[in-house]
Amino acid sequence: MRIASFAATGAALALSLGVRAEEVLPKAEPAPAVIVDPSRDAAPPAWPQPVVAKAGAPNVVLVLLDDAGFGATSTFGGPAKTPELDRLAARGLKYNAFHVSALCSPTRAALLSGRTDHQIGFGSVADGATGYPGYNAHWPRSAASLARVLRDNGYSTAAFGKWHNTPYDEISPVGPFDRWPTGLGFEYFYGFLAGYDSQYAPRLYRNTTPADPPRAGEPGYHLTTDLVDDAVKWVHAHEAVAPAKPFLLYFAPGATHWPHQVPKEWIAKYAGAFDQGWDKLREATFARQKALGVIPANAELTPRPAELPAWDALSGDQKKLFARQMEVYAAFMEQTDFEIGRLLKSLEKDGIADNTLVLYIAGDNGGSGEGGVDGRDVIAVDGTAPSPADRLKRADELGEEIFDNHYAAAWAWASSTPFQWAKQVASHLGGTRDPLIVSWPAKIKARGELRTQFQHITDIAPTIYELAGVTPPDKVDGVAQTPLEGKSFAASFYDAKAPSSHGRQVFETSGNRAIYQDGWWAGARHVAPWSATRGADLAIGQHPWELYDLRADFSQAHDLAAEKPEKVKELAALFDSEAARTQIYPLLPARGNLPSPADGRVVFDYRPGADHIPQRIGPKFNRRAHSILAEVTLPAEPAGVIFADGGDYGGFSIYVKDGKLVYLAKAWGNVAGKIVSTGKLPVGAARIGVEFIPDAAKPPPVRTSFEPRVVFAGKIILSVNGAKVAEGRIENLQLSYNETLDVGLDSGAPVSPDYAAPFAFNGQIDKVHVELK
Predict the structure, then answer these.
(1) Can you tell me the mean pLDDT for 386-394?
(2) Is the pTM of this model over 0.70?
(3) Which CATH number fits domain 59-581: 3.40.630.30, 3.40.50.970, 3.40.720.10, 3.30.70.270?
(4) Cβ-contact 251, 62 below 8 angstroms
(5) Mean pLDDT within 526-551
(6) Which fold has domain 603-772?
(7) How far is CA 132 from the centre of its chain?
(8) How many CA atoms within 13 Å lie on the side-chain side of 528?
(9) pLDDT confidence of 12, banded at 50, 70, 90?
(10) Cis omega (within 30 of 0) on the bond before 418?
(11) Are the CB atoms for 675 and 689 separated by under 8 Å?
(12) Residue range 686-710, pLDDT digits in tens
């Protein structure tokens, strides 16, 4: 037998010289032996072998909650009961100096890449992208994700829940898909591609295909429950087929981002729990935090900022309404804790929890003040908020599907106890510090201990690489990789006194900025997160740099800037150099319309099969006059949706009910107009026409939060075969942030209360022609 082997010797030579060989992904396949003997029995068969993970490499479960402050969960002294997180912490470690970006997309990008948010284009949320390298939301090929690296090193990978890291113009039926979860290393994805979605009728994807949950909109359905069910199913399938192969499971529910939607039985548990108000709640949380030992004994409670009202200054109606808002939020958190507990308990039941590393990050930023000083719940058809008394009349409905509800900003401040400020305020710990719980029963023998090392979200990926025996790649698909910013903190798993591996970190969100260096923190706030303009109209530098010594001042209670001006100057210069290095500049770049496949188009033709098209890449119906002409064939008893864009919170639907043509518009959850044809539709071929002639667009008199609200009212004319069959007015037309355009059905939440989704059309649709005037 003669066999010629062509195995590479470069790696062995590099090792002999004490130099690490370049790590390249995907790993090269071993060169096959070249068989030159013609006899079939001269050499044994040799199948190509897959890449195998290091022996003993742990499974990894990475959990990330949304919009939860440091003091939200009971595990860290908060008012929301989180017994499952308590249980996990009791058999693992609690980190009280763990830091995130002050906003969701940036934190997720840093978590899954090991680089800072701006380095990979996520200085803002994906829907706030701008055309600058640090803000364009285009994940670069030079920053391979944690999922991609683990996959190419023998792991199975899956993601569930919120994915807010794909450019919005690429979320379409035709992609491109390389910046979707499955294009960034996850072999399986089930969730939504937006900042938030309905908990009752979400728009989900399975991998890259729209996936309407079979029970969405039905009593008992809830998104977080659905996500856990799917994650458990995926683990069971994985263990049935490849039990020896480790997995990465990334679980990021939409909870507890707004809308705060949760069944009434959970809300009932908190009846009256917040009647004392946010000032007293903050004091009670602070006391519990000290009793639990999650903050040091010498920590001080920071005062309420002047931008937020004192509870005692509110009216009786305001107090009742705002207390109800917080009851709903706390219930949402507890229900989320229960559902994630089901996932973790399933791993125990399946016998795989022992060698599973769980990293549970209880918040991607501080509590969210984006609901504004008064919160958001009942909104009138013109985008204004009714009086507290009128809003209070519907307070019992909060938590249901119809509301895009959010608590008042002072609750966000209270849930970020003991720190100043909240989400988006990267200048202070209230926006950037959240609890981390770590559990790995097979290796971490400490139980319920506290860790106080300064660590950052970018440290998660390097830590997992170390524990999985993975070398971060130098090149992936031929592209040189940006070095990791984070450092492994695995040493702290075994040694409470291990030094922090993270000595310097830069922060920036919405113009709010900070720099950390070896215990010192300098921060400069630009704007409060509920500002109606997001601070775009203010010059950077309105607020001076503040200085804190975190080694002695856990909560940033004492600004030392006046005492140590040279230290401030030093750290401000360090921020400048780090900002230039990591693509933070320009600060607060101006926002414009995001790129869209619809750009430049005024004519659109849709045919059957054109459904689940995200509203963000379709025609901007609510910005201009438009006409819609549908060529259909009507059966003897026609019924169903011909064309719809939006959902129960906003949009419009053209449908047939009781044989009549109907146009119904929604705005902020209200019926903004309903026009019905005078007679029944004819049988056979027909041209169904809708024309919208808007009034001059005008803003409402008052804004209730930072969201821009412009009224689009006007006249609607319905026609059949060119003849007018109805005319009427709509008081406003608003398209939902994350709903879809559909031909022949209404996916997601139904626009009209007259039908249940999808209310598919029972006739034939040849084409729907849209023209923007």
Answers:
(1) 96
(2) yes
(3) 3.40.720.10
(4) yes
(5) 85
(6) Jelly Rolls (2.60.120)
(7) 22
(8) 20
(9) very low
(10) yes
(11) no
(12) 999 999 999 976 555 544 444 556 7
